[in-house]
User: Fold this.
Amino acid sequence: MTGSVPLVDLAAAHAEVEAEVRAGFDRVLASGAYVKGPEVAAFEREYAAFTGVRHCVGAANGTDALELALRALDLPPGGGVVLPANTFVATAEAVLRAGLRPVLVDADPEHLLIDPGRAAEALPGAVALLPVHLYGQLAPMRALLEIADGRPVIEDAAQSQGARQHGRGAYGRIAATSFYPGKNLGAYGDAGAVLTDEPELADAVRRIGDHGTRGKYDHERFGFNSRMDALQAVVLRAKLRRLPAWNAARRAAADRYGALLGALAGAGALTLPGTVPGNEHVRHLYPVRIAPGRDRDAVLAALHAAGIGAGVHYPAPVHLQPALRHLGHRAGAFPVAERAARELLSLPLHPHLTEAQQTRVVEVLGRALGAEGYAGRVTP
Assistant:
């Protein structure tokens, strides 16, 4: 079997929604309401209902959304915000942009989400807790809410659109998400949103993201410009109607990977991703861990040479990024996150991935790992 397999397939997703998007674009162009407006308001209502919260406020992108959530809480300037070292740099960027201080902690070794025990050790003296829902599942929110002990909990939900934990889609006082094109719910450019049950927080987010104003030229507080545009709302509304089915397709593809990769996992060549008890995973990514002693980067190169669009999320933890050297951490500070950065390999996963494509991925992966003749055998 030959052929390339993309990491994500945005063209296939667009083909499903193209007619609705074109009709929606025509509505916007006819109305002239390009920023905010009725399309954005409708999406905000629909996404709030989908997530199970009372309020959703659109933003220009996910990083802005997280900064808006932090600013709306009016936390003490320079206060510490506890967050995991295993995350995309935008989580720490938003904390710094909000005038706060990132307090990094390590991940749990099994699921690579924020470790509640480490978070509890770091919380004294901090003003808030910022868990990150990675790869498509929620961090252990019940434990985190307990250790937060009244401190506000802000959820970075950029990779968990549609995920549930014990039936709930959100737990903290406020959450932020990204609609970057590759997300489970992706726009045709940048967009984001803030979610909360508290009307006062929703109002604050809306004002801060619109230059701090309640009405034109009436600026009550210091803000900036981060508003969702109507064309992105059209795309997101069309895709949101399909998101439950698309997430189900992702879960089915992940289950197929689990069966196809069972022999490699059993042989100790790699470790399959797990699910926290009580979580309904939406499989934003399918990250396997290449066993120590094997060259993850060589495996990645072999996949790319065969046309397989694998990736690495993330090749360096937050504390080892040059831009955040001032936080004062050295290599070895967060060993779980650092080991994950060396071992993780994200395989292609999206709602339109076919069984034949997955078999192709697993065949190439097996050869790259030295399993001669491996052809994606399904383990009993």
Q: What stands out?
A: The domain at 243-368 is CATH 3.90.1150.10 (Aspartate Aminotransferase, domain 1). The chain has a mean pLDDT of 95.
